[in-house]
Amino acid sequence: MTDLQDLFASLRRSPAILDAFVRTIPEDRLDIRRGDGFWTIAEHVSHLAQVQPMLLQRMERFLVEEAPVFVPYLPGAGEDEPATPPRMEMAAALDRFADYRDRQLRLLEAAGEAVWRKAATHPEYEAYSLYILTRHALMHDHWHMYRMEELWLARNAFLTRLD
């Protein structure tokens, strides 16, 4: 965990990177669906905004539970959950993402050493902790940003299929 400050700095930059990136994409490209099973760029942005409260809640659980047990979050897997994220207005999604990221960082930066040492259980992962969740949040941000760039710019023959 010697890279916590780097993770915090990177997480702090994600909202500005996402905001600047999304504003470069022409409005008429935000809702193009490139194929069956593909999310639109707007749906990726919406998803990033919509999962931030869940991530904050998971981070908070590390503060109050000795050994948190998590269940997988699988968008579109529940009977009542749509297959694609509900589309938000882009400015609202970007604001929500930034607001929740700020809340997450305040919590993470205030967490004591004992909180960082706690082990949790998550059925998708062999190991899980606040550190892994923190790193996962950053990688999740950038995976979706990469996917949005690919959906915007990649030619069909080079578009990654996630079937």
Explain how this protein is built.
This protein has 163 residues and is mainly α. The protein has a two-stranded antiparallel ribbon with strand order 1-2. The longest helix has 24 residues, at 41-64. Helix content is 58%, strand content 2%. Helix 1 packs antiparallel against helix 3 (90-110), helix 1 (4-24) runs parallel beside helix 5 (130-153) and helix 2 packs antiparallel against helix 5 (130-153). It has one domain: dinb family like domain (Four Helix Bundle (Hemerythrin (Met), subunit A), Up-down Bundle), CATH 1.20.120.
Residues in helices, as a percent range? 55-70%
Distance between the termini: 34 Å
Assigned CATH superfamily: dinb family like domain
Described by the principal axes of the CA atoms, the overall outline is globular
Number of domains: 1
Profile the largest sheet.
Answer: 2 strands, antiparallel
Number of strands: 2
Oligomeric status: single chain
Give the radius of gyration: 17 Å
Strand content: under 5%
Strand order of the largest sheet: 1-2
Could you name the CATH class?
Mainly Alpha
Order of helices and strands: HHHHEEH
Structural class: mainly alpha
Number of helices: 5
Mean pLDDT: 94
CATH fold name: Four Helix Bundle (Hemerythrin (Met), subunit A)
CATH architecture term: Up-down Bundle
Please mark out the parts with pLDDT under 50 across 5 or more consecutive residues, or reply none. none
